[in-house]
Amino acid sequence: MPVVRLVILFSGEGSNLENIIKQLHKKEIEGKIYEVVVAICNKKEAKGIKRAKKYGIDTIILEHKNFKNREDFDKKLVGLIKSYKADITILAGFMRILTPIFTDNIRAINLHPSLLPLFKGANAIEESFFSETKVGGVSVHFVSSELDGGKIILQKCFQKEEDDTLESFTKKIKELEFELLPKAIVKITKDKQWKRQK
Ligand code: GRF
User: Fold this and answer.
1) What is the pTM (predicted TM-score) of this model?
2) Architecture of domain 3-190
3) Separation of CA 92 and ligand 1 centre (Å)
């Protein structure tokens, strides 16, 4: 049976990382086995590190602050991802701007907590909550050289309620993220050419 080799990049809590592990790792779905082959984190204090290790996932800490520039960091990251023979790399809360050294060489997808192209960037949840828009949403898209700008794979939104607080709104975003990211991974591997590399 074909195995889909997943690499996950993260920077913080790692709740989406854990959700992918729970929903997909070593699971057979529609004729394929999904395997998280490594989790890579750019911050040594990230809570997600413990989460990944709990499931016995190879976990690498690659601190960007130890590199003299973005390009050098990305070169190392690309080398690592290739050494694990990744089919798809998933940015699950990876808070780092990537250079073309990464985006030209790695087939990756990103999770973003808004209905793109609205509210790109690092403060999407707050900006979308405090905006005039009547909905909140989540997007999963291919990573391109444009920040939060690649082709959309899946999106879903929900109605903002009068009594929503930033906390309740964030909770709804998280629930949608847990639903959408694993679905998006399965969706792109339905493509006949899912194994193609960049
Ligand atoms: C998520 O809201 C994701 O959309 C954003 O960063 C957050 C990561 O959360 N890019 P976690 O680390 O998976 O808990």
Assistant:
1) 0.95
2) 3-Layer(aba) Sandwich (3.40)
3) 6
